[in-house]
Design brief:
alpha+beta, three-stranded antiparallel β-sheet
């Protein structure tokens, strides 16, 4: 896998729309950089992996909260 991914690559990996990927970048949830004269967004492969791992952690916290609330 290349070091930097396009937003289209991110969409494919996460199976989301381009609007969703763009929103993740603009919210700061997914770290990205702009490169080139046209300011194309690129996401470093390790940043995508960090986002995925944080998403798993967030899901685990949410599930734990729901379990505590039901107890």
């Amino acid at each position: 896998m290349p070091r930097f991914l396009t937003l289209a690559d991110v969409c494919e990996q996460l199976q989301i729309s381009s609007a969703q990927a763009y929103a993740l970048v603009h919210s700061g949830e997914l770290k990205a950089i702009q490169v080139g004269g046209r300011g194309q967004w690129r996401v470093e492969d390790v940043k995508l992996e960090e986002y995925i791992q944080e998403s798993y952690a967030k899901a685990e916290r949410t599930l734990a909260e729901h379990r505590r609330a039901r107890s």
